[in-house]
Design a protein that fits this description.
MetI-like fold, disordered N terminus, 2 domains, 579 residues, 3% strand, two-stranded antiparallel sheet, globular, mainly alpha
Amino acid sequence: MISPQPGRAISETDQRSKLIDLVVMGVGLALFYGILSIARTWFSPVSPEANISLSPAALPIYAGYSLLRIAVAYMCSLTFAVAYGYIAAYNEKAERIMVPALDILQSIPVLSFLPGVMLAMAALFPRQQLGLELGSILLIFTGQAWNIAFSFYSSLKSIPRDLKEAALINRFSAWQRFVQLELPYSSIGLVWNSMMSVAGGWFFLMVCEMFQVGQLQVRLPGLGSYLQTAANAGDTSAILWGLAAMVAIIVLLDQLVWRPVTVWANKFKFEEVESASVTESTILNLLRRSAAIAYCQDRAIAPAAERITRFFLLPAGMQENSRKPHPARKWIERGLTVVVLIAAAYGVAKAAQMVTSLSRDELHQIADGTLATFLRVTAALVIGAAWSIPVGVSIGFSPRLARVAQPLAQIAASIPATGLFPVVLLILINAGLIGTEGKLGAASLLLMLLGTQWYILFNVIAGAMAIPTDLKEASKVFRFDRLDRWRLLILPGIFPYLITGMVTAAGGAWNASIVAEYMVFQGRVLQTTGLGATIAGASGNFPLLLSATIVMAGMVVTVNRLVWRRLYRLAETRFKLET
């Protein structure tokens, strides 16, 4: 006689699966409708100065606008980072140019990109709102892409030799090597740096949604412009409402996106012994039970992936021949090199013409600002590393702690210091720490620290999570004390990730100086001596803006070449996980 219990269990499972399918379809339709509604406004007639309402009722639609801009910018950043990092890691000639170029790009502040980007987008779409929206998205992109590219490049350079040889022995095509080795090995670093990139998008949201280009005032509807308008008006209640809306979105993103993706990426951890503690995600478990998603996976995604893999397969014996460059490739490379050199020479000539028009006072302003900002950046890195390394290792080693600390760190990193700082300024002004002369002083270091310390923390967490379980077990077997554990296991294990975090944090600190050293609050300018203040205050003075930007990029590149690049080489040679 068959028991009815199994039948009832199957029925309950089917009901749960159908309910999950309905929820997934409902969320998908809601997102699709929201994207269509917002996209409709993008193709409407241009309206650069939107009327920003400080009513809390306007926050949901503003949140939708900002979230869509950040999501589009992130997808562009991820695509760019993977392509850029891949070429830089495997083409030695391109690496000599692309890595220093990445140093320069990450050091250029968002405000320095702003005039060129917005004027170009306005020229492409002079009568549609789409031009301003694309300009805002590209500005957010400039605050997101570089640390993902650094992470992917660093991961590719640290792939163990035995895994590369296994791919070679099995005659993997370039596509197979990418999807079965390189992308999985880089996934943990990509996920955690993606979190940091999205947090960086929130950080610069106020700058990217409300700004001035010459005589053109641009104010786009969104959370960033809402917070900036509230800060300019000194409306503390509206600032708190805006921050509350942003925190709510960040919490939802953490639970619906980052937590499932983080758990999923853990399966690509490079280790020979399975971890005893497994992190789980309720959302990911529900999605795995969805019959509709399983159907799409079996009938559409898996067959498409199989066809792509077969398309890129090389016939036996062609792998070696495929590596030989085509004869025409050399001429194409030479032609592109000539074009780039001509364009660079023209740009240098024009830049030199603008720089030579600076006065002596402006040159002294740039020199004094460079030294002041350099000292603040150094202090921010030291303070940030002092607390983020031990905290990050603790989170990465403890799945139980990670379940609590990850969303808190994501929230703290994503809340823009530019939105939180007006509240801090009110406290400092009421305490008499900021006088009527409007000098920020140590407050600028606090704002810079709030915007850059998370790069170090997130990379340290990713590095700690990537340390193989068998090495952790070996340290227990050999009874390492705390000092030996840090010296022989933890610091070598997280070293490549730590260097990536320090490099991106340094570039982020220079970039954040434009909002840390200069701010308009309650109708008056609050600033301090610094290169960021020079750039932020150079409204319409393009020679001063260009010169300060060149100096900032030069400082970042010089430090990277003298310090960080050597540490990168050390990470690739000495602290590389391989058997």
